[in-house]
Amino acid sequence: TRKGLKPLRTVVAWRGRAEWDQVMVGLYCGDSRLQQEALDRVSAWKSRYGPKMPLAVDCTAELIRCKVLDSSGRLKSHELILSYGLALVRFVNLITERKQKMVSIPLRQLAREVDIPIWVVDLRHELTHGKLPRLALCRKGCDVVLDWLRKTYWSRQLGNNLCEESVDEEEEQEGVEANAELENDAWE
Q1: What is the Cα–Cα distance from 150 to 162, expressed in whole angstroms?
Q2: Which InterPro entries match (predicted)?
Q3: I need a surface site. Which of 102, 119, 136, 177 has the fewest CB within 10 A?
Q4: What pLDDT, in 10s, does the model give residues 134-186?
């Protein structure tokens, strides 16, 4: 700040830190009722904030909405694949779009730069250009992306270790298996 001037304030859609923290906990808690309440709060933020809504918040909400719909039992398998698929495609496209330069850079390279697992990019490619994958793979992709969002965005906003968890070997192996499954479906 310059001498004599007050620091600039940033206007945000949430009331304060407590509301932000409450929504983050609600989104990641696993209880569909609390997740729906958090989704409703994010919708209110979006109506206030519009295009200024952080991409990570928007992507998290879309993915959690898929999980809530999945747990409700109201959608058929094919509808769930499409729902998860759209959320995953949007996540990869929106997160990597910011790193795109004037020259087109391959998504795999951009994903590596931001530590998105390559098999998630392959899943996005399959959803966009190939045969639709199995629901189990879409669910796994959703879980991996939500974990990535929690670690790289939400926990940084909290400024503490609440969300810092190491990926265990079983999760890494599942990612390798999912990637292998995608590569077995021969596509360019």
Answers
A1: 10
A2: Las1
A3: 102
A4: 999 999 999 999 999 999 998 887 664 343 343 444 444 444 444 434 433 32
Query: Is pLDDT above 90 for 121?
Result: yes
Residue pLDDT, tens place only, 15-28: 788 898 999 999 99
The structure tokens listed for 52 are 């200024």
70: tokens are 């999945």
Residue 136: both structure tokens together: 């189990």
- Joined tokens for residue 3: 């001498």
Residue 10 CB-density burial (10 A; 0-12 exposed, 13-18 middle, 19+ buried): exposed
SS3 7: coil
- Residue 117 CA to residue 180 CA, distance in Å, equals 13
Interatomic CA distance for residues 93 and 75, integer angstroms: 25
Q: What is the dihedral of CA 32, 89, 118, 80, to 10 degrees?
A: 40
Residue for token pair 């209880």: 31
